[in-house]
TrEMBL record:
Region annotation (Disordered) ranges: 39-58
UniProt KW Magnesium keyword: no
Domain Extensin-like C-terminal residues, every copy: 124-279
UniProt keyword Signal, yes or no: yes
InterPro entries from the UniProt entry: Extensin-like_C
Keywords annotated in UniProt: Signal
Pfam family for this entry, one: Extensin-like_C
Signal peptide: 1-21
Naturally occurring in which organism (per UniProt): Actibacterium lipolyticum
Superkingdom classification of source: Bacteria
Protein name: Extensin-like C-terminal domain-containing protein
Amino acid sequence: MKRLVASFALLAVLAASAAQAAPSSSPFPRLRPTAMPRLLPVFGPSPETMRPRARPGTRTAPIVVASVGSASFTAARSLRPKARPSYVRKVAAVQSQPKVTTTGKSGSICGVKSIRGVKAAPIPGRLKGCGVKKPVKVSSVGGVALSRPSVMNCETAKALNSWVKNGVKPSVGRLGGGLKSINVIADYSCRTRNNQPGAKISEHGRGKAVDVSGITLNNGKTITVLKGWGKTADGKILRRMHKSACGPFGTVLGPNSDKYHKDHFHLDTASYRSGSYCR
C-alpha cells in the first residue's frame, strides 16, 4: 500500500515539472491572415458583386444598377449575341434576257407565217465571236407560244418552227388537250460553252441556239426534262422530242450527253460535215 501511494506521489511531481517546462505558445503554425472583406456602402451592395464580370473579349455596355441622389453606380453586362446569318438556299438563276432594240411591229417574221415575233437591231458582241447581224425576237412558232420571247437568228427560228410542227406536236398528240407552250430557259447570250472559262464561244453567243427545259399542256400539266426524262410515260414523249430535233438542228444535247444538260435540251443550228450531232 505504501508503495502505491509513493508511485502516485512521484507521478504528481513529474506532471508538475512538465507543466512548468512547457512553452508558453502553441508549436503549431498560425493560420495565414485572411483578406479583410470589402466594406459595402450602407445603401446597398457593391455593383461589381451584383453581376458576373464579362468574359474576356466580350463586348460590354454599361447599365445603371443603383443610384442615390446625384450619384449612380454602373456595372457591365454582355450585349446580346448577334443573330446567326440565315443561309439562303441557292437557286439556279434563270438567264436574264439580253437588252435588244426591236424594230417594227410584231407579226410574221423570217418569211414564215407561223413564226411570230419582231425584228431587232443588230447585236454587237462584247466578246470576240459573239453578236447577231439580223436578230429576231420570237414569241411563237408553229402556233405554239414560247414561255418567253427569245432572241435568235432566222435560221434558228425556222429550225425551231419545223421541230415544233413536225416533232413536238406529234410526240404530244392529244395528251392533256394538246401542246400549249414551249418552255425556253436560254436563247441569245454572249458566253463560252457551258460558261466554262477558256472554252470556245457558245452558239448562244451567235444567236444560233435555244435551250428548252420542257413543255406545258393545255390542261396545265408541265413535263420537264429534269423530272420526266426517266419516267415511263413522260420519258417516252421527251425521247421522241429529242430524237425529232436531230435534223432540223445541227446539235442536239440532252440528259444523256453530259452533266450540263440534265435539265434541258440544247438545240443549235451549227453545221457539221458529218451531219447533225445528237446526244
